[in-house]
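Example S7 (structure tokens).
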């Protein structure tokens, strides 16, 4: 896993490519891209803890490979096809209070 400063450098490169600019990318630009407050980014940076949920959401929304940002991989950042959003009432979640109840639902015994 990369340390947070390495992740910030990679994010700056990606944002610079997306904006197609030669200007320096600042931390406030990264905070805006990640949809978090600049003060929150400064806090993450101070603690050297990446905002994982914001990073994953950013990568998903921009169709980026999160593995390239979070892990040391020599593979270039590839675009991937994002899955179609799940429509309402298409997925049903059934909750079971224990494994035994789930086994009974499946018709099996432990």
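Recovered sequence:
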């Amino acid at each position: 896993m990369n340390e947070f400063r390495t992740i910030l450098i990679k994010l700056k490169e990606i944002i610079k490519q997306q904006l197609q600019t030669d200007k320096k990318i600042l931390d406030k630009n990264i905070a805006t891209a990640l949809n978090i407050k600049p003060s929150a980014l400064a806090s993450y940076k101070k603690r050297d803890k990446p905002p994982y949920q914001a990073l994953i959401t950013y990568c998903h929304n921009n169709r980026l490979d999160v593995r390239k940002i979070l892990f040391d991989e020599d593979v270039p950042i590839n675009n991937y096809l994002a899955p179609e959003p799940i429509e309402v009432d298409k997925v049903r979640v059934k909750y079971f209070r224990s494994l035994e109840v789930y086994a009974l639902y499946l018709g099996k015994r432990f």
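Notes on this example. The chain has a mean pLDDT of 79.
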